Amino acid sequence: KAGVTQTPRYLIKTRGQQVTLSCSPISGHRSVSWYQQTPGQGLQFLFEYFSETQRNKGNFPGRFSGRQFSNSRSEMNVSTLELGDSALYLCASSLEGGYNQPQHFGDGTRLSIL
Amino acid sequence: QKEVEQNSGPLSVPEGAIASLNCTYSDRVSQSFFWYRQYSGKSPELIMSIYSNGDKEDGRFTAQLNKASQYVSLLIRDSQPSDSATYLCAVKAGNNDMRFGAGTRLTVKP
Side by side, which strands form the sheet with A19-24? Predict the structure, then answer.
């Protein structure tokens, strides 16, 4: 069974640009969560999508947005990039996001802002 | 107070010893608890989940949960150099989103 697939693996952008990251969950998984990981802040929750609806949201500015498609694939968009957005962005999927359903992570997209 | 706190480490143990990793959480309605292992440059990998008070064993790993004390721990018996990684404690809070601790870096010395 294929795991969580994130594309691209690496991305370099400049300040002010926007970026779109993609995540394909494990087959059959309908809940997709996004995280930002930095050395200083650790893993921080961005948002969770289930059945094409944002179900939970972390404390990030509106520049960070996402969506989920009918096949459960998800995209995350960051607009007006800032230097502080440089991070590893991780996507995780679970069956339905229930309390007893662990999340499984993709390899991440490493975003560097110049 | 952070929602999920872990002993900051780094933690260093000799090969064959028991490594003990600790985690406390602030949300009393938390229902599920997970331990992830993250090797440098890699993504987190699930190693244990625990949902009820007590101990849960899986091979060399034992997770312990005490909801009254809002405390969860991970014991690694017979530690191996390949166990050297950062261990992340994760808690699913009342609103069902996952919160992670900052992680504890473990080094197992041969």
Answer: A5-7, A19-24, A74-78, A64-68
Digit-coded pLDDT (tens) for A57-111: 999 999 999 999 999 999 999 999 999 999 999 999 999 877 788 899 999 999 9
Asked whether B34 and B27 are in contact (CB, 8 A), the reply is no
For B2-32, b where at least 16 C-beta lie within 10 A, e where not — what string?
Answer: eebbbbeeebebeeeeebbbbbbbeeeebbb
pLDDT, tens digit (0-9, with 9 covering 90-100), for B22-57: 999 998 888 899 999 999 989 999 999 999 999 999
Of A99, A104, A107, the CB nearest to B32: A99
A-B contacts (CB, under 8 Å): 52
Residues in chain A closer than 8 A to B97 (CB atoms): 33, 45, 48, 56, 58
Q: Which of B92, B99, B102 has the CB atom closest to A99's CB atom?
A: B92
**3-class DSSP state of B25:** strand
Q: What residues have CB less than 8 Å from B55, skipping those under 6 apart?
A: B62, B63, B64
CB contact under 8 A, A105 and B44: yes
Contacts of B95 in chain A (CB under 8 A): 56
